[in-house]
Design goal:
By secondary structure, the chain is mainly beta. It has one domain: Jelly Rolls, CATH 2.60.120. Strands 1, 2, 3, 4, 5, 6, 7 and 8 form an 8-stranded antiparallel β-sheet that branches. The C terminus is likely disordered.
């Protein structure tokens, strides 16, 4: 059975503000996330149950039940099929655990959730 070390795994640069080191198991995915203040995730839902534990910083999640701010040593659980979005309030380091394994991470299908091609128009 393999042993993984987040200290030596190469990060995936999802955006300029969002890096992910990922390990895939047969039925789950675990990632170490680093996201800069101001990084956002657009509203979306997926078939994966997701648990995110913040190690450093603070991260706001918008859920159908309202907003939640997750701080160090706190965890949020997002059930499969639940629409959610987020904004990093302070630079974040977090662990993200999902089941089943995240195929969208492997193939980069989630990149559009964290990148807004029209962001240059925000100042207009």
């Amino acid at each position: 059975m393999p042993v993984y070390d987040f200290n030596t795994l190469q990060p995936e640069h999802v955006t300029d503000q969002y890096n992910r080191k990922m390990v895939q198991g047969e039925n789950l995915s675990v990632a170490r996330l680093e996201a800069a203040r101001g990084s956002t995730t657009r509203a979306h839902k997926h078939r994966y149950e997701e648990m995110i534990m913040v190690l450093q910083g603070s991260w706001r999640f918008r859920l159908p039940t309202g907003e939640v701010i997750v701080k160090p040593n706190q965890m949020i659980t997002i059930p499969a099929g639940t629409e959610h979005s987020s904004e990093v309030l302070e630079d974040v380091v977090a662990i993200d655990v999902c089941s089943p394994a995240r195929e969208d991470w492997v193939y980069g299908e989630d990149r559009g959730l964290r990148y807004d091609p029209d962001q240059s128009l925000w100042g207009v």
